[in-house]
C-alpha cells in the first residue's frame, strides 16, 4: 500500500506490504478505473443491448435500412471507445506486473 504523509518539508511516501501485494492493489485500482470509465460510456445493460442488437442484425443479414446502418455505426463508435479503454488498461496492468520496485508500481498511471 502507498501512503503519502504531508509534512512541512514536503510529502513523504511510504510503502507497506510486499511488492506482489502492491502490484495486486495497483492492478485492482486500474481495473476499477477502467470499469468506471467504460460504464460512463455505456452501462452494462446498454452494452448487453448493443451486443444483442448487433447479433440480431447479423442474423438477419446485416443492416438493411439507413436507420439500421446508423444504429450499427453508433454502436460501433461506443465499442471503439470501450476497446481503447480496455487496451490502455491492459497495457498499464502489464507495466505494473513488470515493475520491479514499489516506486515503479505506483508510478504507472492510467
Compact overview of the structure:
This protein is mainly alpha-helical and 110 residues long.
Give an overview in words.
The chain is mainly alpha-helical and 110 residues long. The chain has one domain. The protein contains four helices and two strands. The protein has helices at residues 19-41, 44-59, 66-98, 102-107, and strands at residues 2-7, 10-15. A two-stranded antiparallel ribbon has the order 1-2. Helix 1 runs antiparallel to helix 3 (66-98). It starts with a strand and ends with a helix. 10% of the residues are buried.
- The first-to-last residue Cα distance is 17 Å
- Biggest sheet, open or closed, and with what strands and sense? 2 strands, antiparallel
User: What structural class results from the helix and strand content?
Assistant: mainly alpha
The helix tally amounts to: 4
Instruction: Give the % helix.
Output: over 70%
DSSP, total strands: 2
SSE ordering: EEHHHH
Shape: elongated
Strand content: 5-15%
Amino acid at each position: 500500500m502507498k501512503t503519502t504523509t504531508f509534512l512541512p518539508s514536503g510529502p513523504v511516501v511510504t510503502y507497506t506490504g510486499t511488492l506482489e501485494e502492491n502490484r495486486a492493489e495497483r492492478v485492482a485500482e486500474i481495473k476499477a478505473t477502467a470499469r468506471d470509465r467504460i460504464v460512463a460510456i455505456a452501462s452494462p445493460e446498454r452494452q448487453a443491448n448493443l451486443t444483442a442488437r448487433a447479433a440480431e442484425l447479423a442474423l438477419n443479414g446485416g443492416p438493411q435500412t439507413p436507420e439500421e446502418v446508423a444504429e450499427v455505426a453508433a454502436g460501433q463508435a461506443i465499442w471503439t471507445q470501450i476497446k481503447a479503454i480496455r487496451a490502455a488498461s491492459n497495457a498499464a496492468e502489464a507495466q505494473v506486473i513488470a515493475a520491479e520496485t514499489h516506486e515503479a508500481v505506483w508510478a504507472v498511471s492510467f
